[in-house]
Amino acid sequence: MSATITSANPAYSTQLGAAYVGDSLKLLTDLPDGSVNLVLTSPPFALQRQKEYGNFDQNEYVDWLMQFGRLVHRKLREDGSFVLDLGGAYQKGIPVRCLYQFRVLLRFCDELGFHLAQEFFWHNPSKLPSPIEWVNKRKLRAKDTVNTLWWFARSEWPKANVSNVLTEYSPRMKKLLEDPAAFYTPKQRPSGHEIGVAFATDNGGAIPSNLLQISNSESNGVYLGACKEVGIKGHPARFPSRLPEFFIRLLTDPGDLVVDIFGGSNTTGMVAEAEGRRWLAFELNRDYVAASVLRFVPKGLPVARMKELYTAVLRGEPVSIEEETGFQPQLLAV
Which domains does the chain have, with CATH numbers? Predict the structure, then answer.
């Protein structure tokens, strides 16, 4: 059963979720306190150069974001989490980094009562060199390919299970598991760590690190392909599905509620649907919400019908994807 907000009509709904057009502060307020398991979002960054999807001046940014953090803290369950993706930025006119994401961290913890469960770093190896002035032209700085993700928790003991996000063993580890005696002898390392016989136990995969290397270079997946067929422009700042997938699997169970307060192209909602989680997506820009409905259309749906669905959302007519024959959530797009 999908999650809903009684005071507003969704732009579109699926079996498990709904996307809303509107101010996230108002929509968050309408949610019951203590009802959300995970808020996962990537807000507009505090960049000096204005983007078409909107962003704030660095000096105003932290105060602006604090409004949302205060509400999120109220809406989370006691064991709930808030994962916030923030990109780095430079100060205006000089090759010196802005510290806004660290100010967000400190103020969220010191003033709002969040706990920093862990910091993550998303490395996007396909990211283009930026800023051009300091990297390409003057060659004073290396290109910036890492975003910071703060994993905030409402309590000191948020729900989490690393076993749900194990990574594939390295070739060497696979050989070790085949014949442990040929590769190592249980003993104490110089660092003091005890390497015992349990080290050779096959646990189904390796514990992931907090450095997530996920390329964001996909350009012809389901979402962008559908946008192209309908003749519209996709959202200019999408994150890859593997990013929300990691945190949704790590921090929630099937049936839990996942909320994205800056929905954009609704990658989060699509992944939550595919993972069997209830979801809500809030986005101020109706054009972006209308385009995001194309993430949920059944495979092989005629282009004419896709255009009808997109136009209906654009006009403010509620759309139910459940009524579309053959709809099945699929992780095929970014």
Answer: 12-162+209-321 (3.40.50.150), 168-206 (no CATH)
